[in-house]
Write a structure and sequence with these properties.
Oligomer: single chain
Mean pLDDT: 78
CATH superfamily of the largest domain: Type I PLP-dependent aspartate aminotransferase-like (Major domain)
Distance between the termini: 123 Å
CATH topology of the largest domain: Aspartate Aminotransferase, domain 2
CATH class of the largest domain: Alpha Beta
Helix content: 40-55%
Largest sheet: 7 strands, mixed
């Protein structure tokens, strides 16, 4: 074999091996995905969602893990030479896609890691005092704890908002704090962390004014928020428009709807002179921020680079665009829905425009909505009672009920319940804590939700709102309606979203003088009422019995669809209560008669036994002797004094002998003057309770 033939054979073997490797990789990938999808065979919508995500995003990403593993095995000096090329490509992509003009970019796996890198980079090396970071009141406490634990020479200062917006920084208060801390000997103003789309309510700080203030005192401005990425939705943006900050962090996993992407941190402020001088001293020096990348898993920045090179802008923007459209549709329809209060819609033009977060040449258009926060609020319908603390707390219970109903029927909406969120009441200037519902489509993969689903959701929301209004009206009028029924009493119960509670009191019981017997009787009636009414109407339920002050049971009334339903429910309780009261009274009377009959039957049997003893003599009652006496002189087989049984007639209430029953082998019915006339024509035997005592 010549050398040329050997070379050709080696090339052929190499090609065959490559084809086998590709085939093996494809087979493993297909087998893995098929196995995962096999657990979704009953959920067709989930399967479609997974396929859609794969076709739109993940298939374009490629084998990022393989590239990352390869890059991590390279020597350090090779990494430093390779990294700038791909960093520049990511920078160019961010500038075209997000319209963000940054000096450099960092990719961080964890949220706290992104903050740590910004803080460590921006810290002034010539300062030995504590660096103060100014934050809004609702800043994540766990994140604050992680940062103070990792970086010792920083501390946080909450900026109280005089308008009681916990997610926004009050500019006047911030200026006062900075002026105060600028002359402090132990600390200095260092950084402000502002919001461009706060986590819970989606509000924006006035970045333009905050940046102007911080430039006077050389304070670093770092911005976070979902609306930072909304610049990507603008078709055209002037080159001189930029976000008013020194650095910002974007959660591209949330914005793009692709899992396992890193947090993207962009540095807009140029490097300071000292660090630039260090870079110019030696060509071998690495960019200060590149050190963070080179000492971190490379899959973070490579996953962003792979998406920037392979995915189209249309696919990348699909999740963000759809999420903003759904939030806007919900917001628009909620404004048309009566008795629904939108909490994050106050002063929309003031708090959510591009001019608040960008430079002077920015558009004055309103920013898209990333979050919609709302609650049930029937302002002005129920007069002065709406100002009571009890009524405000009751509205929270109704919001909980509304959340349960909506989340059960529309789980794909991913509604959240936020408790004790402060907002300003319509009739009061005070800030009130209240439960609210939150819709944040950006935080979930919402490809399976379309506008038709949203419209159906809104129709049901209106239907549930009508139920809540009818229930409130019934609760307000409960005492007045109960006054029409002499046997019903209204019972106040806390933590109940329904109409309230009712107790049926029998006519024979004095409400002012209740003893244990009366309480037992009342509880027995309530239990029987609940058993009967629950079988036909789910609005009834049994409650009580656990309160130390009131240990009696009562009937709880749930939600109703119409205001007129309250009177129907009360009539059902009153009517059923009368029937149960009458039935129980009949049973009690019959039980008393049975007791008297048993006593009389026992006395008659004792008298007959004494007579029989007198006839037979004492010797026949003794053991052994009685056998001898019976052998010597047998007792008559049919003694007229033989003991007879007794029966009790339920209709007549009389105790009778069972002699005829044993003679004729059947129970003989006898008509008495006490028997009811409606039994005269019946041929059926009466119900009886029989007690027999035989020797």
């Amino acid at each position: 074999m010549t050398s040329e033939q050997a070379e050709m054979e080696n090339k052929t073997l190499s090609v065959d091996n490559e084809e086998q490797i590709v085939e093996l990789n494809n087979r493993l990938k297909t087998d893995f995905m098929s196995h995962c999808l096999s657990y979704l065979h009953e959920d067709e919508e989930a399967r479609q969602c997974v396929h859609l995500v794969w076709n739109r995003y993940l298939e374009c990403v490629g084998d990022v893990a393989v590239l990352a593993a390869f890059f991590d095995t390279l020597p350090y000096h090779v990494k430093t030479s390779v990294l700038p090329k791909y960093q520049n490509e990511i920078l160019q992509w961010c500038e075209k896609f997000f319209h963000i003009h940054s000096q450099t970019i960092l990719c961080s796996t964890y949220y706290s890691e992104a903050f740590q890198r910004v803080i460590r980079y921006a810290l002034k090396t010539d300062q030995y005092k504590k660096a103060i970071i100014y934050i809004a009141t609702d800043f994540e406490p766990n994140l604050k704890f992680d940062l103070t634990s990792s970086i010792s020479n920083i501390k946080f200062e909450h900026v109280q908002n005089r308008n009681s917006h916990d997610d926004m920084i009050d500019l006047q208060q911030l200026e006062e704090l900075i002026k105060r801390d600028a002359n402090d000997t132990l600390s200095y103003p260092f950084m402000v962390i502002a919001n461009a789309g706060s986590p819970f309510l989606g509000r924006c700080d006035d970045l333009k004014k905050i940046k102007a203030l911080c430039e006077q005192y050389d304070v670093w401005v770092h911005v976070i928020g979902d609306l930072l990425g909304s610049l990507a939705l603008l078709p055209v943006l002037k080159d001189n428009v930029s976000i008013m900050c020194d650095s910002l962090t974007i959660d591209i996993m949330k914005l793009l709807g692709i899992q396992n992407l890193p947090y993207l941190t962009c540095f807009l402020r140029p490097l300071n002179n000292e660090k630039q001088a260090e870079d110019n001293d030696s060509s071998n020096k690495v960019h200060p921020l590149d050190e963070f990348i080179l000492h971190s898993p490379s899959i973070s920045f490579l996953s962003v680079w792979s998406i920037s090179q392979r995915c189209s802008n249309e696919n990348l923007l699909h999740h963000m665009k759809l999420s903003f459209e759904l939030a806007d549709l919900l917001l628009t329809r909620l404004k048309q829905t009566k008795h629904i209060r939108i909490l994050n819609d106050e002063c929309e033009k003031e708090y959510n425009t591009y001019s608040r977060i960008c430079s002077d040449d920015a558009l004055d258009n309103g920013l898209p909505r990333s979050v919609v926060v709302f609650r049930f609020q029937p302002d002005g319908l129920f007069g002065e009672c709406e100002n009571n603390d009890d009524f405000i707390g009751y509205l929270d219970l109704l919001t909980l009920w509304l959340f349960d109903k909506l989340s059960q029927q529309y789980s794909k909406m991913n509604l959240e319940l936020l408790k004790s969120i402060h907002f300003q009441s319509v009739k009061s200037k005070n800030q009130l804590p209240a439960h609210v519902l939150r819709f944040a489509p950006l935080e979930h993969l919402v490809d399976n939700i379309d506008q038709d689903d949203m419209l159906t959701f809104l129709d049901d929301l209106q239907r549930f709102t009508d139920i809540l209004l009818a229930t409130i009206a019934a609760r307000v009028n409960l005492s007045t309606s109960i006054a029409k029924h002499e046997n019903l009493v209204a019972i106040p119960i806390p933590n109940w979203a329904g109409i309230g509670a009712v107790r049926y009191i029998p006519s024979t019981i004095n409400r002012a003088d209740m003893n244990e017997t009366s309480m037992y009787e009342v509880n027995r009636i309530q239990s029987e009422l609940a058993r009967q009414l629950q079988s036909n109407d789910s609005a009834f339920s049994l409650g009580g019995g656990s309160d130390e002050l009131d240990s009696m049971l009562y009937l709880r009334l749930g939600m109703i669809r119409k205001r007129e339903d309250l009177e129907i429910l009360l009539q059902k309780i009153a009517h059923a209560g009368k029937e149960i009261e009458t039935s129980l009274k009949y049973i009690e009377d019959m039980a008393e008669k049975i007791k008297e009959g048993i006593v009389k039957a026992q006395k008659d049997l004792e008298d007959e036994n004494l007579q029989l003893l007198a006839q037979d003599g004492l010797l026949r009652q003794l053991p052994l002797v009685s056998n001898l006496m019976s052998w010597w002189s047998p007792a008559p087989s049919a003694s007229p004094l033989a003991t007879k049984g007794r029966s009790f007639d339920l209709n007549s209430g009389q105790v009778e002998s069972t002699e005829d029953t044993y003679v004729y082998r059947m129970q003989i019915k006898k008509q008495t003057v006490h028997a009811p006339t409606h039994n005269d024509a019946t041929a059926t035997s009466t119900d009886s309770s029989e007690q027999q005592h035989q020797n």
